[in-house]
Design goal:
With 301 residues, the protein is an alpha/beta fold. The protein has 2 domains: 95 residues, ATPase, nucleotide binding domain (Nucleotidyltransferase, domain 5); 168 residues, ATPase, nucleotide binding domain (Nucleotidyltransferase, domain 5). The protein has 9 helices and 13 strands. The chain has a 5-stranded mixed sheet with strand order 3-2-1-4-8, sandwiched between helices. Strands 11-10-9-12-13 form a 5-stranded mixed sheet, with helices on both faces. The structure holds zinc ion.
Length: 301
């Protein structure tokens, strides 16, 4: 039996997934990232963890929170790492007999989710988390673009409201449809006098739950976020005409309630040129990166 270790290095923890050669996730676990300032210490810790398992690795596939170029991590702001040869460090620890892959974590999530939809067509993935990231997968391959910036959907200008984005510009998708954006939007609507039963607005889940119960302000907030998503999807659809768009991340856990609203707005926006697209909810949740990492090293491109 051959085994693949998927390793997802985040800002505060390292997630591991052990896959068999059939692509089944056999085990997954998490370790706290203690001394993260020194990449060599982290790589040694990863190698020690992998060596401690009963299953000898045939491949190790690593996800990192930053752009990757020519198998090197360029920059990871959450770790304060620059130009780190992750594969080189791991090879020195685990040897030449193991296959290695390194990829940006958002791209891995996109790949993990896209392959669940189709391995032939084009799939775009929107990660609706604290911010909004994403990725594009074409025929099972990650589309990175010239500088690795393909799929930065959070910064598409949807022409709604004028909230300032983390990037300094206004009206970006992220200011409305991320978890943080939805909270800002709801708070703004409260100042506009929309009635609500909520005393304090503090989380996206709270807003979505209240909207499902029929709370006027919350329903309006989710509806506006859905409209912003529909506008962003339209821009993407007109550009690359994908088969499907997959929504993942915390906000997407609103499920069909959100997807139906996005579908409705999308249909209304497409009165001229119609670009049909399937709207799909992500399947792998927190494990999307691990599934993507497995696929990435198996396909090796
Ligand atoms: Zn922005």
């Amino acid at each position: 039996m051959k085994y693949v270790y998927a390793v997802d290095i985040g800002g505060s923890s390292i997630k591991y997934g052990l896959f068999d050669e059939a692509g089944t996730l056999k085990r997954r676990w998490k370790e706290t990232l203690k001394d993260k300032t020194n990449p060599s210490v982290v790589m040694k810790a990863i190698a020690t963890t992998i060596r401690a398992q009963d299953e000898t690795p045939d491949a190790v596939s690593v996800g990192v929170p930053g752009p990757v170029s020519e198998d090197q991590l360029v920059f990871a702001p959450n770790l304060n790492w620059r130009d780190v040869d992750v594969i080189g460090w791991l090879r020195a620890e685990l040897g030449e007999g193991v296959r290695y892959a390194l990829e940006n974590d958002a791209n891995l999530a996109a790949l993990g989710e896209a392959l669940h939809v189709t391995s032939r067509g084009t799939v775009v993935f929107f990660a609706l988390g604290t911010g909004i990231g994403g990725g594009i997968v074409q025929a099972g391959r990650i589309v990175r673009g010239h500088h690795g910036a393909a799929g930065e959907f959070g910064h598409l200008d949807v022409g709604m409201y004028d909230f300032t984005c983390g990037c300094g510009q206004q009206s970006h998708l992220e200011t409305l449809a991320s978890a943080r954006g939805l909270i800002n939007l709801a708070r703004h609507l409260r100042t506009q006098g929309f009635p609500t039963t909520l005393k304090r607005i503090h989380s996206a889940k709270q807003i979505v739950d209240a909207a499902k119960r029929g709370d006027t302000l919350s329903n309006r907030a989710v509806d506006e976020a859905a409209k912003a998503l529909a506008k962003a999807v339209r821009l993407v659809a007109l550009t690359i005409n994908p088969d499907a768009v997959v929504f993942g991340g915390g906000v997407a856990q609103a499920g069909a309630f959100l997807l139906d609203k996005v579908r409705e707005h999308y249909a209304q926006l497409n009165t001229g040129i119609v670009v049909p697209i399937s709207f799909v909810q992500a399947k792998h949740g927190q494990n999307a990166q691990l599934y993507g990492a497995y696929a990435r090293v198996m396909r090796n491109d």
